[in-house]
Design a protein that fits this description.
The protein has 15 helices and 16 strands. By secondary structure, the protein is an alpha+beta fold. It has three domains: 5-300, no CATH class; 307-427, no CATH class; 436-497, Arc Repressor Mutant, subunit A. The model is unreliable at 1-7 and 350-355 (pLDDT under 50).
């Protein structure tokens, strides 16, 4: 299904996203219960999150700090005074019968996020997606359906959330995914959220409508609720665009409603009529005071914001002269980016003879070797090696002490055992054989063992050079210096031809 489905029949999509991102606080938003995923059901609850009579909420100020940090990073203006409100609705996973949220007076409003969009032959272009607001609220509990029975786990009730509401500036499913990825990346970089979509700590509602091209009036929108993967967001929006165009072309009218995405059938299903603000009967939360933020507090958080991924990529290209692709790969994970920068600093300091290593070589080692090895170990937990030790390994390969393939083996052993490269090379006798006599003896044995191939080589079949080099590598268990093998093989064949 094409995300630009309306392009051939005169329609265009108009999409706005509401993203819910849980905050990485130690405790819940309005009580001291632990904010930890995966605990025994209903074990992280108290009178406040169970809504027992007489229990009152208390603001978690760490949640406020994280929300303000996220807003500042997203270019959203901070409102020095904001109010909490009660959003009333009745669900089994909402013990109070209302959710503490923000409505008319949110903590921040009026921002934007730049995203990369595909633009045909011109490649990637940037597009500005306006952000209406970022506000603070608490999460609801979770319903678990098993057969004909439904159970409720209230551990999640009261978990701190920010809701980030975009303007309807998104025009396709692919743009929606680009926006979500850029947003999630920033929140994870800042340590505001873990961004785990599988666990529901980063999820979105998509408001989708279509209209005739050239029509400035917004079409009737449908809200697709709680989609928690980039793949499903894209598929759900694509399906909904096509569904709404089909309804209009068949003479029907799109109705405003909330729909759920069925990933097995790849379609959206009607869930209920879409609620409006008046349905929630918002009013100011009487048990919480206004939230008042000082200029000093806001500036302190602003000054704590680290270099964000897009700025880091631009710097890698301009300062380190890396390609845009390499910069992209190195900055997707904050820990890898910091590790790479630490390698550069360590190399500049001359540790482990690393001072002469070029940044491009370091980048290649991180991208092609370290990341590959870490990916192969996914699920085992990440254990990084000391930067000086990694530089020692790279230097061993660059100096010819070991070859590249052996270097990969040593790297895997370093990650598993924590040992230094030099110790592994010595213990396992992995150092390259580079002395001419040792390599020449091994080559002579290989030539004697393969008379037909030698005859063909002498007859002009130069492709057999690779065969003989490979055989020498086998005989020396990968320890022969391939460059030396080639040099000596050329010398021996020239002697035999003469």
């Amino acid at each position: 299904m094409n995300s630009d489905i309306g392009s051939d029949n005169g329609f265009e999509a108009v999409i706005g996203l509401e993203v819910h991102s849980q905050l990485l606080t130690r405790t819940k938003m309005f009580c001291s219960c632990p904010n930890v995923f995966g605990l025994k059901p209903n074990s992280a609850v108290c009178p406040t999150c169970l809504a027992l009579p007489g229990a009152l909420p208390v603001i978690n100020f760490e949640g406020i700090k994280l929300a303000v940090k996220a807003a500042l990073a997203l270019n959203i203006g901070i409102n020095k005074k904001s109010l909490f409100a009660r959003k009333n609705y009745f669900y089994p996973d909402l013990p109070k019968g209302y959710q503490i949220s923000q409505y008319l007076d949110p903590v921040s409003s009026g921002g934007h996020l730049m995203i990369k969009t595909e633009a045909g032959k011109d490649g990637l272009k940037e597009k500005k997606i306006r952000i209406n607001r970022l506000h603070i609220e608490e999460d609801a509990g979770k319903l678990i359906h098993i057969g004909n029975l439904s159970y409720v786990d209230l551990n999640r009730a009261g978990t701190p959330l920010v809701e980030i509401v975009s303007e309807p500036d998104i025009s396709s499913a692919s743009e929606a995914v680009s926006y979500l990825k850029a947003l999630r990346e920033i929140l994870v970089y800042l340590g505001v959220s873990d961004g785990n979509m599988e666990e529901g700590s980063f999820r979105c509602d998509a408001n989708v409508s279509v209209r005739r091209k050239g029509d400035n009036t917004l079409g009737t929108r449908a809200e697709i609720k709680n989609v928690n993967s980039f793949k499903f967001v894209e598929k759900a929006i694509e399906y909904e665009i096509e569904r709404q165009i089909g309804v209009i072309l068949s003479g029907g009218k799109v109705i405003q409603e909330t729909r759920l995405y069925d990933s097995k059938e790849n379609l959206t299903r009607s869930m209920r009529g879409k609620e409006e603000a008046h349905d929630y009967r918002y009013f100011e939360e009487p048990d919480l005071p206004p939230l008042v933020l000082s200029e000093e507090f806001i500036n302190e958080i602003k000054n704590s914001i680290i270099e964000l991924p897009e700025a880091k990529r631009r710097r890698y290209v301009s300062e380190y002269k890396l390609s845009e692709y390499d910069a992209e790969v190195l900055t997707q994970d904050k820990d890898i980016a910091f590790y790479f920068e630490g390698l550069i600093d360590t190399a500049k300091g001359g540790n482990a003879d690393g001072g002469g290593l070029e940044v491009k070589k370091l980048a290649n080692w991180v991208i092609n070797e370290l990341l590959s090895e870490l990916k192969a170990r996914e699920g085992e937990g990440r254990s990084m090696i000391e930067k000086a030790d990694f530089l020692e390994l790279i230097s061993a390969v660059e100096s010819g002490t070991i070859n590249r393939n052996t270097g990969k083996t040593v790297l895997a052993e370093m990650l598993s055992s924590g040992k230094k490269a030099s110790g592994i090379i010595r213990e396992k006798n992995l150092a390259q054989v580079s002395d001419d006599k040792g390599i020449e003896d091994a080559l002579k044995q290989v030539l004697e063992e393969n008379p037909k191939e030698l005859s063909d080589l002498l007859a002009g079949k130069d492709k057999l050079f690779g065969f003989f080099v490979g055989e020498v590598m086998k005989k020396t268990k990968g320890r022969a210096n391939p460059k030396k093998v080639n040099e000596i093989l050329k010398k021996l064949t020239m002697e035999k031809k003469a």
